[in-house]
Amino acid sequence: MERVYNFLTHRISPKILRTGYEPLEEDNVNSSIMSMAASVNQEFVAKKTPQYLVSFIVSIGAFSHGTSIGWSAPALPNMEKQGDFPGFKSDSNMATWLDGMFLLRLLHWLPVTAHWKEMDYACARSPFFNRLAAQAKIRGTLCNAIGLAIGLGILFTYILGSIISWSHLSLVNAFFPGIFTVGVFFIPESPYYLLANGRIEETLESLKSLRGATEEEQIIPEYFSKKISVQHRKEATWSDTLAAYVLKPFGICMMLIIFQQFGGIKGVLFYSVEMFSYAGTDVNANIAAITLAGAQVIVLLASTQTVEIWGRRISIMVSELGMTISLVALGTFFYLKEHNEDIRLEWLPLTSLLFYVLSYNLGVGPVTWTLVSELLPSNSKGLTSSIIAAFSHGLAFLITKFFIDMQKLFTSYGCYWFFAAMSFAGFVFCLVVIPETKGKKLQDIQAFFRK
């Protein structure tokens, strides 16, 4: 390590090794660096296994998050059935607080936002860590694994919740955060974060661990590639953050989050078992909810391909339109039911919700966050993405907390028709406002907003 460290600190000028974000002035400096880096490389091919292992550990946290999302659907009816809490059934307010409590991660994002400069590299969110630690050729797969892990967590909880009591389900779900907490101690720090803070030796050790290298010289080319990327980043000031080229994509991303959350996905997933029971269909409520979660996992796998075929904009538009149709159908079913119409449409609630979940996970769910990462300028992404994440969790909490109140205020069918109207508004917004980012370089996207 000492020999490599001397190579880095003595053969390269101090300007190249500084951790500031000022850009390099001459292109031939970059080519000179890469030539020297190649001279010490031993035709090394990085191993994928260490990166998959890191992604697996990170995905345990996402799986745990999925179990939290899915917990209330089987747990609340089970609480009412067992009568563990006297008066629980009549106190729907208590149930909504149980549903929404874990979504109060808004408070978690306040200190993150306060340290937004560090967030440029030390991103706490799983997809961003995978994006920073993985090689480009497998980065997309590892980032998409996060959404899949969340879906698997929901499916796992639905299945287990139909078999065991709510208390045992809670104990089982508490096991996964513990595994994740232990696992993160074995994950190397992001090389970008270490580089940004001038920790050269630790950067080399991190890259060596992530790439399965046996010699430090083997990862020198990648080290310099990341070093140049860090140096070309210009630190954003508050005036830069308030500039039009930042506010425009920031506003678009905020609107995308509004349409995503007001599509009603959290309320539908949290209360799926109760909704099927109320619908009075012949299908067992737990089986229907499990089918819903299973379909979500399947379409999450498919969405990794469709987003590259259709593009971001079309994916979200198709998704919003599908959600609109299914929510209108679901609202129509409850309208006929509540007006005592003699209908033979017991198949409609499950079919509509299946189509709704498939549509959501085809675009609005995963692709919204892809657009957020692509539209926001890189030099202000730490602050703006933190605000957007806090806003998203805040809206999710409000919708979950007041979902039952909305049903009482608007009736069940009115609530679903409201979500349908918001989904259609999201379709129109994407049609008119959203630019296509598929295949475009990040600098080209940023140049679009600077016009």
From TrEMBL:
Q: Show the InterPro entries listed in the entry.
A: MFS_dom (IPR020846), MFS_sugar_transport-like (IPR005828), MFS_Trehalose_Transporter (IPR050549)
Keywords, A to Z, come to:
Cell membrane, Membrane, Sugar transport, Transmembrane, Transmembrane helix, Transport
The Major facilitator superfamily (MFS) profile domain extends over: 1-438
Q: Which Pfam families match?
A: Sugar_tr
Taxonomy, superkingdom:
Eukaryota
The identity of this protein, by name, is Major facilitator superfamily (MFS) profile domain-containing protein
The UniProt entry lists membrane topology as: Multi-pass membrane protein
Q: Where in the cell is it found?
A: Cell membrane
Q: Name one GO molecular function term.
A: transmembrane transporter activity
* Any one GO cellular component localisation term in the record: plasma membrane
Q: Which residues cross the membrane?
A: 52-74, 94-112, 141-160, 166-187, 242-263, 283-302, 314-335, 347-371, 383-404, 416-434
